[in-house]
Design brief:
The structure is a homodimer.
Chain A: H1 4-7, H2 10-38, H3 48-63, E1 65-71, H4 75-85, E2 91-98, H5 107-112, E3 120-124, E4 144-148, E5 152-154, H6 156-168, E6 173-175, E7 178-183, E8 189-192, E9 209-210, E10 214-218, H7 220-225, H8 230-239, H9 243-255, E11 260-263, E12 268-270, H10 288-302, E13 313-317
Parallel strand pairs in A: 1-2, 1-4, 2-3, 6-11, 11-13
Antiparallel strand pairs in A: 4-10, 5-12, 6-10, 7-8, 7-9
Helix pairs in contact in A: 8-10
């Protein structure tokens, strides 16, 4: 049966119906409006930067590297090199290990000459130790580390290429300075370079180490380095030398393969002579090489075995600097 | 109660006891003798050769390679090259793919000039096809194949080094002749070498193929080659060309990486000019390079995509031929 509504006269019913439907329509529109406000914001509304940030960070970690440069008594060279290295492609950040104890870092001056392409962090040290550069710096965000001596200038082309090589050999030390050890019948080891007899694996020479003073390696090895036997730290501190030999031992032990991959540099220079400080590097000390031979033997004792392996692979960049560097005479 | 034995007089018992124990002892000795005969033969008893055989076989499979050389109308070059290659270190066997249809192989003459350092097998073909050399020969016992054109002379030093490099990159084609493709805005591909513009990945050049006419690769790829789309075989047969490009496509697809690793040869020579046959290789045909560009595009269609990847890694042997080839000017 039809109720209250039906009792009304036809005309009044019509107007009430109209009002009713109008109200319903308005309510529906309001609800719809409220719903659209709740919809997820579409692309155009977002700031272009904010969407890109997370991607840049993960991209940075894999596609860029951190330069770690330890410095002592050669601030003029340091700053010259920073001017060069700050603009290397794929560089994420620079960590300067400041071994000038008690001396102010050039941070103020650095900042006054900003902005700079990448952040530079000055890590002030309390003791002047060779192995300071092998700390597991919390500032490190990238998988790759480029370690450079504070007197070594390597061209941007060489660094860009070597970084791409490291990306293909991430568990190795990929760098520009190869060295080798040889064992003697007495069981005592000797350290050196091309001047030493080749270890006798066919023709040509071999290398068993790549020095970390001009090389890329995985930041995980800095973590590993914190977990070495105390005797290793004692050896490095006693000689103020051999931290790079120790790193090669560590990497070789870890991989069971040759620790390094040698990339032949097109343009690498030592700027030592250019310093105003008059300070020349540790390698000028009379006992330097003898110390390193000593270190090799000591490390074999500490690690109870010789983990270093030989390699004769030399990598160059195809077609650079000369596109004809690979033309054969066929 | 004591039985029969006890009834006997003491003296008789003593003798019987003695006999009994003697028999027991003799039986025990016989049993012991029989047992020692069943023991595994100790080392000294084995023939020195028979113990070494299985090891040599497995050692051979991993530490040596098989040379596959296809030949057509250049038997003089073939024999010259066989004299050279038969003495390469780590060579296991030579397979000559005889494309001289209807012509006798030089096997008799070869045997009359024996013995030779390694076995040489002449595989007589029924049709003169470029892709005959890519069969999965049952004669193949090694993991590694060295494929050489019948007019290419590579020094033993280069081959020994390249083999050691292949052992470190077994899934790649490790060889001496790099080539590249470039894509054009029209989507049509071009094939070439240093004369083509570099693909634009920074400075220097790139390569995306290593030709199999002077290269090491895994014998498994010959097996894989038998399972390619029919259109690939048709293309190679139609052009009598491009089998090497097809192999690079196959390898790149399989690894997802650049197919080849380029080893810069110290001494590689083309002996074409030296042949008496007057026959010069296929690459002198006017359409040779155009065919190869055509092949690249066709293979992209067949494989529904471009699997080739670029590399700029060039490998040389450290300290050879000159120990100073890695000295830097620091």
């Amino acid at each position: 049966r039809c109720f209250h509504f039906c009792k009304l006269p036809g005309r009044v019913t019509g107007i009430r119906l109209l009002r009713f439907t109008s109200v319903v329509i308005i309510v529906l529109l309001l609800v719809a409006g409220a719903l659209t406000a709740l919809l997820p914001t579409i692309k155009d509304d977002k700031l272009p930067n904010s969407r890109r940030e997370p991607k840049t960070q993960s991209q940075s970690a894999l596609d860029s590297f951190t330069l770690i440069m330890q410095t002592y008594n050669r601030t003029d060279l340091l700053l010259k090199l920073l001017n060069h290295y700050q603009a290397i492609p794929h560089l994420h950040k620079v960590i300067v290990v400041w071994n000038n104890i008690g001396e102010k870092t050039p941070e103020e001056m650095w900042n006054s000459l900003g902005p700079h392409p990448v952040p530079v962090v000055f890590k002030v040290q309390t003791v002047n130790r060779m192995r300071n550069r092998l700390q597991n710096f919390p500032d490190l965000e990238t998988k790759a580390v480029l370690m450079m001596d504070d007197d070594t200038l390597v061209s941007a082309h060489d660094l860009a290429f070597a970084f791409s090589v490291w990306q293909q050999f991430p568990e190795h030390i990929v760098g520009f300075v190869p060295r080798k050890h040889i064992s003697t019948p007495s069981g005592v080891y000797s350290y050196g370079s091309f001047e030493l007899q080749n270890p006798g694996f066919g023709n040509g020479d071999q290398y068993s180490m790549v020095l970390i003073g001009a090389a890329f390696f995985h930041s995980g090895y800095l973590e590993d380095f914190q977990r070495q036997p105390e005797a290793v730290y004692a050896l490095i501190d006693e000689t103020q030398n051999c931290d790079d030999i120790a790193m090669n031992f560590l990497v070789a032990k870890h991989t069971g393969k040759p620790s390094g991959v040698f990339v032949k540099p097109v343009d690498i220079r030592n700027l030592e002579k250019d310093t105003n400080s008059g300070y020349s590097g540790m390698w000028h000390r009379a006992e330097h090489l003898l110390q390193r031979s000593y270190c090799v033997s000591k490390l074999v004792n500490i690690y109870d075995g010789m983990p270093l392996k030989y390699s004769n692979i030399m990598i160059s960049q195809f077609g650079f600097p000369n596109y004809a560097n690979h033309k054969n005479k066929m």
